[in-house]
Amino acid sequence: MFNKPSRFVDRVFIHCSASDHANHDNVATMRRWHLERGWRDVGYHLFIRKSGMLEDGRSLEETPAAQAGNNMGTIAICLHGLKEDKFTEAQFDRLRQLCLEINNAYGGALTFHGHREVAAKACPVFDYKSVLKLDRFGRLSLNGADLQDLAEDAGDDPETLPVLRRGDRGPAVARMQKLLVVKDDGIFGPRTDAAVRDFQSSKGLTRDGVVGPITWAALLANDRIEHDGS
Ligand SMILES: [Zn+2]
């Protein structure tokens, strides 16, 4: 859940980490790199791993160190990755969800940009304008319904669907909730957790409340059976 900082913010900048190494796929590595440069903390506020997991970096209450000359009044988000085709849909989904939350928190009174708009750098390397459906001013035209559609288009490969557990949020959670036939609000709370555990028990799976490849496969198979039978 995004909480608005008390400092003034009117722009969000998107970055990429310029690495595809799995060992660098965490905010701790970014922090180490930035401390080695003599900074007092990691430059970014938020970091999105290839799995779609969101990590907190610098406190949102502090100005980032991410876009030289354009740090005041901004939030800096970094996605792990170097090559355009190595970013994952899970990352883009998380980015969409996060930017939608930020946009809602500000009532739409802020704009979204790539680092490359203010620097002679290819950062980020992916087409963030289409990922976020930005208009020419950088306003987000993505809405909740788009997220729902995106989740449904995400594909059916249990190995590539994100591992979900209590506390997670977003379109993948909403999709899983739909398969479970519980309220699809995209929030993995106690009721969803109980429904997942009951489903796992009913299928003879480990009742751990974690939706990994095996539980996803069972949910998708269950859905197919029900649809085919009707
Ligand atoms: Zn950047």
Write a structural description.
The protein has 230 residues and is an alpha/beta fold. The mean pLDDT is 91. It has two domains: 11-131, Lysozyme-like (3-Layer(aba) Sandwich), CATH 3.40.80; 154-229, PGBD-like superfamily/PGBD (Muramoyl-pentapeptide Carboxypeptidase, domain 1, Orthogonal Bundle). Strand 2 and strand 3 (54-56) form a beta hairpin. The protein has helices at 27-36, 89-105, 128-131, 144-152, 171-180, 190-202, 213-229, and strands at residues 11-16, 46-48, 54-56, 74-79, 111-114. It has a five-stranded mixed sheet, with helices on one face. Zinc ion (ZN) binds at residues 15, 115, 123.
Portion in beta strands: 5-15%
* Helix fraction bin: 25-40%
Overall shape:
globular
Count the strands? Answer: 5
List keywords for this structure.
Muramoyl-pentapeptide Carboxypeptidase, domain 1, Lysozyme-like, 10% strand, five-stranded mixed beta sheet, alpha/beta, 7 helices, binds zinc ion, 230 residues
Summary, kept brief:
This is N-acetylmuramoyl-L-alanine amidase. Helices cover 35% and strands 10% of the residues.
Task: Give the SSE map.
Layout: E1 11-16, H1 27-36, E2 46-48, E3 54-56, E4 74-79, H2 89-105, E5 111-114, H3 128-131, H4 144-152, H5 171-180, H6 190-202, H7 213-229
Parallel strand pairs: 1-4, 1-5, 2-4
Antiparallel strand pairs: 2-3
Bound molecules: zinc ion.
Domain Peptidoglycan binding-like: 183-219
Protein name: N-acetylmuramoyl-L-alanine amidase
GO molecular function: N-acetylmuramoyl-L-alanine amidase activity
